[in-house]
């Protein structure tokens, strides 16, 4: 009998990587590390970047992107995309402003705006999951539809007579810190989305759909229902971000947040979420949003024009998408063609 026959059968744990490697040697942790490096470089080289007022305005600027990026992460992991989020922000802003101008309290108007956002997300979900249309085509269409509704409802005017309490609250800070109060809302949302994605059966279904929708369906995952729920969540959270956006600037306009969807998608992909689906993590996305925000803020303080900032953001987006394919190619070259043979079964030479 050979030595192989005397060994105990090897288990999955024998082939798995140590926990520290699975936590630290990931794209998400690489983005976190890059975020720390960029922040330190900016703090040392850009005047007033590390000042508390700069941190406050940086977080105020990225708060809406951070919120919208959470459901967008889950949608892209399933292999879909939602380009209508910024238009839903504008639509919810108009709903909030119009209802408040008609005499409805901010609380009630905000609730209606969130419901409208959820309905808008349900429209996307219906066409994608029931009708069977591709999400890219559907959300490009609803991007124009929702923006047209927003501009049509309010025209070129703006509603600015919001209660001072709410506008001050949107810009307030946690006492004794430069951190805006809206970050409390974001942290609650981030924890909720992280638990759903990484610690529930629903989250495992999301990853399974992204890897193979057919395999997920045969495994018992309701693919259509899962995607529909995600698009409804995207619409509701985008509307919530629209309420914050409106109160922060004190103005409800149909063109609010135009182009914001590009910043959201760029941050999500930069944060390690695969555009092909099946891969991603909430902490990487948060780091991606903050990285883009820090770069933009530092470059503005350095008197760099917005065009150059957009070029850098676009280059980061392209690099994040291309790097996934490059890493996969390098992994295949390292492993070699074909499937590696496992160890011989006990009793075999």
From TrEMBL:
<feature type="transmembrane region" description="Helical">
    <location>
        <begin position="108"/>
        <end position="129"/>
    </location>
</feature>
<feature type="transmembrane region" description="Helical">
    <location>
        <begin position="136"/>
        <end position="159"/>
    </location>
</feature>
<feature type="transmembrane region" description="Helical">
    <location>
        <begin position="83"/>
        <end position="102"/>
    </location>
</feature>
<dbReference type="Pfam" id="PF02653">
    <property type="entry name" value="BPD_transp_2"/>
</dbReference>
<feature type="transmembrane region" description="Helical">
    <location>
        <begin position="259"/>
        <end position="277"/>
    </location>
</feature>
<keyword id="KW-0472">Membrane</keyword>
<feature type="transmembrane region" description="Helical">
    <location>
        <begin position="308"/>
        <end position="330"/>
    </location>
</feature>
<feature type="transmembrane region" description="Helical">
    <location>
        <begin position="228"/>
        <end position="247"/>
    </location>
</feature>
<keyword id="KW-1133">Transmembrane helix</keyword>
<dbReference type="InterPro" id="IPR001851">
    <property type="entry name" value="ABC_transp_permease"/>
</dbReference>
<protein>
    <recommendedName>
        <fullName>Autoinducer 2 import system permease protein LsrD</fullName>
    </recommendedName>
</protein>
<feature type="transmembrane region" description="Helical">
    <location>
        <begin position="29"/>
        <end position="49"/>
    </location>
</feature>
<keyword id="KW-0813">Transport</keyword>
<feature type="transmembrane region" description="Helical">
    <location>
        <begin position="179"/>
        <end position="207"/>
    </location>
</feature>
<keyword id="KW-1003">Cell membrane</keyword>
<feature type="transmembrane region" description="Helical">
    <location>
        <begin position="55"/>
        <end position="76"/>
    </location>
</feature>
<keyword id="KW-0812">Transmembrane</keyword>
<keyword id="KW-0997">Cell inner membrane</keyword>
<feature type="transmembrane region" description="Helical">
    <location>
        <begin position="284"/>
        <end position="302"/>
    </location>
</feature>
